[in-house]
Amino acid sequence: MLRLGVLALLLAAGSVFVAAQGHSAARASIQHTCGLTDRQFIQNYEEQIESVGMYGNDYLSGNAKAADLISAAQDAARIVRSSAPFDPSLQLVKRLAPGMFYAYAEAVRTRDRGGNPNKQMYTAFVVGERVHDVLRDAQPGLTAAGCDISDML
User: Fold this and answer.
1) CA–CA separation, 2 vs 8, rounded Å?
2) Do 80 and 48 meet the contact criterion of CB atoms below 8 Å apart?
3) Which among 11, 29, 32, 19 has a CA at the least distance from the CA of 144?
4) How far is CA 151 from CA 43, 106, 107, 110, 135, in A?
5) What is the pLDDT of residues 67-125, one digit of tens each?
6) How far apart are CA 61 and CA 127, in angstroms?
7) Domain residue spans in the chain?
8) If 0-12 CB within 10 Å is exposed, 13-18 middle and 19+ buried, where does residue 123 land?
9) What is the mean pLDDT of the chain?
10) What's the CA gap between 101 and 99, in Å, rounded?
11) How much is the pTM?
12) Residues 6+ away with beta carbon under 8 Å from 107
Protein backbone atom coordinates (compact mmCIF):
# COMPACT_ATOMS: atom_id res chain seq x y z
CA MET A 1 0.00 0.00 0.00
CA LEU A 2 2.87 2.35 0.84
CA ARG A 3 4.45 1.64 -2.55
CA LEU A 4 1.27 2.67 -4.32
CA GLY A 5 1.10 5.90 -2.35
CA VAL A 6 4.73 6.76 -3.08
CA LEU A 7 4.26 5.96 -6.77
CA ALA A 8 1.16 8.16 -6.95
CA LEU A 9 3.02 10.99 -5.21
CA LEU A 10 5.96 10.72 -7.61
CA LEU A 11 3.67 10.68 -10.64
CA ALA A 12 1.76 13.70 -9.39
CA ALA A 13 4.94 15.64 -8.64
CA GLY A 14 6.40 14.71 -12.02
CA SER A 15 3.23 15.77 -13.80
CA VAL A 16 3.20 19.14 -12.06
CA PHE A 17 6.87 19.70 -12.92
CA VAL A 18 6.41 18.78 -16.59
CA ALA A 19 3.25 20.86 -16.89
CA ALA A 20 4.94 23.88 -15.32
CA GLN A 21 7.95 23.57 -17.60
CA GLY A 22 5.82 23.21 -20.73
CA HIS A 23 3.56 26.08 -19.73
CA SER A 24 6.35 28.60 -19.18
CA ALA A 25 8.22 27.53 -22.32
CA ALA A 26 5.08 27.79 -24.45
CA ARG A 27 4.38 31.37 -23.37
CA ALA A 28 7.94 32.51 -23.95
CA SER A 29 8.22 31.06 -27.45
CA ILE A 30 5.07 32.44 -29.11
CA GLN A 31 5.91 34.56 -32.14
CA HIS A 32 2.91 36.71 -33.00
CA THR A 33 2.08 37.75 -36.53
CA CYS A 34 -0.28 40.26 -38.06
CA GLY A 35 -0.68 39.30 -41.67
CA LEU A 36 -3.66 39.70 -43.94
CA THR A 37 -5.30 36.47 -42.79
CA ASP A 38 -4.81 37.47 -39.15
CA ARG A 39 -6.47 40.84 -39.73
CA GLN A 40 -9.31 39.16 -41.63
CA PHE A 41 -9.83 36.72 -38.78
CA ILE A 42 -9.93 39.55 -36.25
CA GLN A 43 -12.48 41.44 -38.35
CA ASN A 44 -14.63 38.33 -38.87
CA TYR A 45 -14.53 37.40 -35.19
CA GLU A 46 -15.48 40.90 -34.08
CA GLU A 47 -18.38 40.98 -36.57
CA GLN A 48 -19.67 37.60 -35.43
CA ILE A 49 -19.50 38.49 -31.74
CA GLU A 50 -21.39 41.70 -32.50
CA SER A 51 -23.98 39.92 -34.63
CA VAL A 52 -24.68 37.22 -32.06
CA GLY A 53 -24.81 39.87 -29.35
CA MET A 54 -27.35 41.94 -31.27
CA TYR A 55 -29.55 38.90 -31.96
CA GLY A 56 -29.18 37.88 -28.32
CA ASN A 57 -30.36 41.27 -27.10
CA ASP A 58 -33.26 41.24 -29.56
CA TYR A 59 -34.20 37.71 -28.48
CA LEU A 60 -34.17 38.60 -24.79
CA SER A 61 -36.30 41.69 -25.42
CA GLY A 62 -38.79 39.70 -27.50
CA ASN A 63 -37.87 41.28 -30.85
CA ALA A 64 -36.27 38.17 -32.38
CA LYS A 65 -37.18 34.50 -32.50
CA ALA A 66 -35.03 31.78 -31.00
CA ALA A 67 -34.46 30.37 -34.49
CA ASP A 68 -32.92 33.68 -35.59
CA LEU A 69 -30.45 33.69 -32.70
CA ILE A 70 -29.63 30.00 -33.15
CA SER A 71 -28.97 30.59 -36.83
CA ALA A 72 -26.77 33.62 -36.09
CA ALA A 73 -24.72 31.64 -33.54
CA GLN A 74 -24.31 28.67 -35.89
CA ASP A 75 -23.32 30.99 -38.74
CA ALA A 76 -20.79 32.67 -36.46
CA ALA A 77 -19.25 29.30 -35.62
CA ARG A 78 -18.96 28.37 -39.30
CA ILE A 79 -17.49 31.74 -40.29
CA VAL A 80 -14.91 31.74 -37.51
CA ARG A 81 -13.96 28.13 -38.26
CA SER A 82 -13.52 28.88 -41.97
CA SER A 83 -10.97 31.64 -41.29
CA ALA A 84 -7.26 30.97 -41.60
CA PRO A 85 -5.22 33.06 -39.17
CA PHE A 86 -1.48 32.46 -39.07
CA ASP A 87 -0.88 33.77 -35.55
CA PRO A 88 -0.78 30.89 -33.04
CA SER A 89 -3.04 32.63 -30.50
CA LEU A 90 -5.61 33.45 -33.15
CA GLN A 91 -5.43 29.83 -34.34
CA LEU A 92 -6.32 28.76 -30.81
CA VAL A 93 -9.23 31.20 -30.76
CA LYS A 94 -10.33 29.77 -34.11
CA ARG A 95 -10.43 26.28 -32.57
CA LEU A 96 -12.20 27.35 -29.36
CA ALA A 97 -14.75 29.95 -30.49
CA PRO A 98 -16.99 27.67 -32.57
CA GLY A 99 -17.63 25.56 -29.47
CA MET A 100 -18.67 28.69 -27.62
CA PHE A 101 -21.10 29.68 -30.38
CA TYR A 102 -22.54 26.16 -30.71
CA ALA A 103 -23.03 25.83 -26.95
CA TYR A 104 -24.81 29.19 -26.93
CA ALA A 105 -27.05 28.11 -29.81
CA GLU A 106 -27.87 24.89 -27.96
CA ALA A 107 -28.68 26.86 -24.80
CA VAL A 108 -31.13 29.04 -26.73
CA ARG A 109 -32.68 25.94 -28.35
CA THR A 110 -33.04 24.28 -24.94
CA ARG A 111 -34.61 27.41 -23.43
CA ASP A 112 -36.98 27.78 -26.37
CA ARG A 113 -38.16 24.19 -25.85
CA GLY A 114 -38.85 24.90 -22.18
CA GLY A 115 -35.76 23.17 -20.82
CA ASN A 116 -33.03 24.34 -18.50
CA PRO A 117 -30.18 25.89 -20.54
CA ASN A 118 -27.77 26.26 -17.61
CA LYS A 119 -25.39 23.49 -18.68
CA GLN A 120 -25.01 24.82 -22.22
CA MET A 121 -24.72 28.43 -21.05
CA TYR A 122 -22.05 27.38 -18.57
CA THR A 123 -20.12 25.66 -21.35
CA ALA A 124 -20.43 28.73 -23.59
CA PHE A 125 -19.29 30.94 -20.71
CA VAL A 126 -16.27 28.79 -19.82
CA VAL A 127 -15.13 28.55 -23.43
CA GLY A 128 -15.72 32.29 -23.88
CA GLU A 129 -13.57 33.02 -20.84
CA ARG A 130 -10.81 30.81 -22.22
CA VAL A 131 -10.97 32.69 -25.53
CA HIS A 132 -10.81 35.97 -23.62
CA ASP A 133 -7.77 34.77 -21.65
CA VAL A 134 -5.96 33.74 -24.85
CA LEU A 135 -6.68 37.11 -26.44
CA ARG A 136 -5.70 39.06 -23.33
CA ASP A 137 -2.38 37.20 -23.10
CA ALA A 138 -1.75 37.69 -26.84
CA GLN A 139 -2.68 41.38 -26.95
CA PRO A 140 0.81 42.83 -26.30
CA GLY A 141 2.43 40.60 -28.91
CA LEU A 142 -0.31 41.15 -31.48
CA THR A 143 -0.23 44.90 -30.88
CA ALA A 144 3.55 44.92 -31.34
CA ALA A 145 3.06 43.00 -34.60
CA GLY A 146 0.50 45.56 -35.80
CA CYS A 147 -2.87 43.99 -34.92
CA ASP A 148 -5.19 45.86 -32.59
CA ILE A 149 -7.47 43.41 -30.78
CA SER A 150 -8.66 45.79 -28.07
CA ASP A 151 -12.23 45.61 -29.43
CA MET A 152 -12.17 41.85 -28.92
CA LEU A 153 -11.50 42.17 -25.21
Assistant:
1) 10
2) yes
3) 32
4) 10, 26, 25, 30, 11
5) 999 999 999 999 999 999 999 999 999 999 999 999 999 999 999 999 999 999 999 99
6) 25
7) 35-152
8) middle
9) 86
10) 5
11) 0.79
12) 117, 120, 121, 124
